[in-house]
Prior knowledge:
This protein is an alpha+beta fold. It has helices at residues 12-22, 36-41, 50-58, 63-68, 88-92, 101-115, 235-245, 248-253, 297-318, 322-349, 357-372, 374-385, and strands at 5-8, 28-31, 47-48, 70-72, 74-79, 82-87, 96-98, 119-120, 124-129, 137-142, 145-150, 153-156, 174-189, 199-203, 206-214, 217-224, 259-273, 276-277, 280-282, 288-289. Strands 6-5-14-15-16-13-17-20 form an eight-stranded mixed beta sheet. It has a six-stranded mixed beta sheet with strand order 8-2-1-12-19-18, covered by helices on one side. A three-stranded antiparallel beta sheet has the order 3-7-4. Strand 15 (206-214) and strand 16 (217-224) form a beta hairpin. The longest helix is centred in the C-terminal third of the chain and has 28 residues, at 322-349. Bound molecules: arabino-flavin-adenine dinucleotide (FAS) and P-hydroxybenzoic acid (PHB). Arabino-flavin-adenine dinucleotide binds at residues 8-14, 31-34, 39, 44-46, 101, 123, 126, 157-159, 162-163, 265, 284-285, 292, 295-298, 301.
Amino acid sequence: MRTQVAIIGGGPSGLLLGQLLHRAGIDTVVLERRSRDYVLSRIRAGVLETGLVDLMHEAGVGARMDREGFIHDGTLIAKGDEQFRIDFERLTGRHVMVYGQTEVTRDLYEARDAAGAPTLHDCRGVKPHDLDTAAPFITFLRDGAVHRLDCDFVAGCDGYHGPCRQEIPTEVRREDEKTYPFGWLGVLSETPPVSDELIYANSARGFALCSMRNATLSRYYIQCDLSDSPDDWTDDMFWDELKRRIPAEAAERLETGPSIEKSIAPLRSFVCEPMRWGRLFLCGDAAHIVPPTGAKGLNTAASDVHYLSNALKRFYHDRDDEGLERYSETALARIWKTERFSWWFSSLMHRYPDQSAFDLRIQQAELAFLRDNEAAQRAMAESYVGLPY
Ligand code: FAS
Ligand code: PHB
């Protein structure tokens, strides 16, 4: 088998890259470890920056998002029973789109199938070779046989646990990481959202987030201990704790119901540099992770895809490799700004086990400053709706 760009990973990064390259006449093959059903069963992000909305349109997959997605002009920030609103539209002239990552992935898979572009599921032992040459190739196991895929470039879109990052020699690779002393317990329920906009809540008992997927599907999170397991939490325990953490008026109108998905995500900040090694280019979670507080994980994967797809188009159409040469530096400049925002927003909204009385007063002053200062609100809104690519 041969292709121009081999894409390892059939999550949003790999699929969006594949679709943008296909529309530019560049051949790709996506190698995905899991089945399609498994990939589509993962419940992850819910908020799209304007940049990702634009990329979905550029990829020709924006129609259902436009029909079923919800435009949000702002968000609510709560501290105990007090809450205030960050008005994205007034502060930045822009908004965000609420549309689940699962649907983004589904739309991209359907477009790829319609284009007849190959996606190989259930690929095991995927291994890139000769990345430091002009003729890299990939070997992998599938249907009981070893296969080889020759290519010009390899896009490592294989997520945080994928193998591509490890192909960068340890003496070259720099990894910066921060782990957080808590996780997020998330619940999906077929109930109407408690609020028209998201509620980010800082309470004495810990962080909570009220989000949604559509008018009859809600997504809720509460900060939990790293030692917790979803089985430690019955639905009633979850709902009772959520009600304790959000403003009383929201708790009173909260409609509860059986969880149709319940999972715990650990929180970490992580960046791998460089994002390129020879003909390998890392994209998305393969290169960076953020705590989900700022809804930046999927959206930062999208900006990587924007830079990499344009660089590859420039190479194939103009035989100009400057975009490829500058990919890592360009992507990392934006990545670190989203790492900062995600760390800042997580520090603002969560209760830390080792928080001193002074730390707590500083956190409360930061929240009050955000509540009272328009410049602070504009700075937050600019990051939340998405910094320019
Ligand atoms: P992904 O991890 O989505 O996709 C990588 C793909 O590569 C997977 O399909 C995997 O099966 C495949 N793969 C891995 N190893 C492979 C191999 N060896 N061979 C072939 N394929 C391989 N972001 C938010 O903005 N908000 C959220 O609320 C949020 N919640 C999250 C919850 C969880 C539990 C996780 C893990 C992430 C969450 N994220 C959230 C971040 C998430 O949305 C990611 O940013 C997004 O999935 C990034 O997409 P990809 O880079 O495509 O990585
Ligand atoms: C979600 O809806 O899953 C979601 C929304 C906003 C976040 C994190 C997760 O910051």
